[in-house]
Write a structure and sequence with these properties.
- This protein has a single domain, classed as Roll (Nuclear Transport Factor 2, Chain: A), CATH 3.10.450.50.
- The chain has a six-stranded mixed β-sheet.
- Strand 3 and strand 4 form a beta hairpin.
- The chain is globular, with a radius of gyration of 14 Å.
- The longest helix has 9 residues.
- The chain has one helix and six strands, in the order E-E-H-E-E-E-E.
- The protein is mainly beta and 101 residues long.
- The model has no long low-confidence stretch (mean pLDDT 89).
Length: 101
């Protein structure tokens, strides 16, 4: 991840690199199922845009979720290799549900 990362979560909040790392470190995000499909890659010189549909299940801040999501990542090539500079995740409308349990 790039130091200048801008990531938009499923709730619309903007996160930076430190926020993203803290969410995983603190256990706010726990993934129990992750199945990618429908990957699209668009490369334009030193920038690449990746979009992938993910069937996911897990918890976010203790709340269970399950269903299809769409992730978009913007990658930029630099001296240190490829880094994510921006991203977004959203639920595929009408398909995400709470998991009983």
């Amino acid at each position: 991840m790039d130091e200048a990362l801008v990531f938009t979560g499923p709730d619309g909040l903007l996160l930076g690199k430190g926020d993203d790392l803290a969410a995983h470190r603190e256990g706010w995000v726990r993934i129990s199922r992750l199945e990618p499909s429908e990957e699209r890659v668009l490369r334009m010189g030193d920038v690449a845009v990746i979009s992938v549909r993910m069937e996911m299940a897990g918890t976010f801040r203790g709340e269970p979720f399950a269903g299809p999501f769409r992730y978009t990542r913007v990658w930029r090539a630099g001296r240190g290799g490829w880094r994510v500079v921006a991203g977004h995740v959203s639920a595929v409308a009408g398909h995400v549900s709470a998991v009983a349990g």
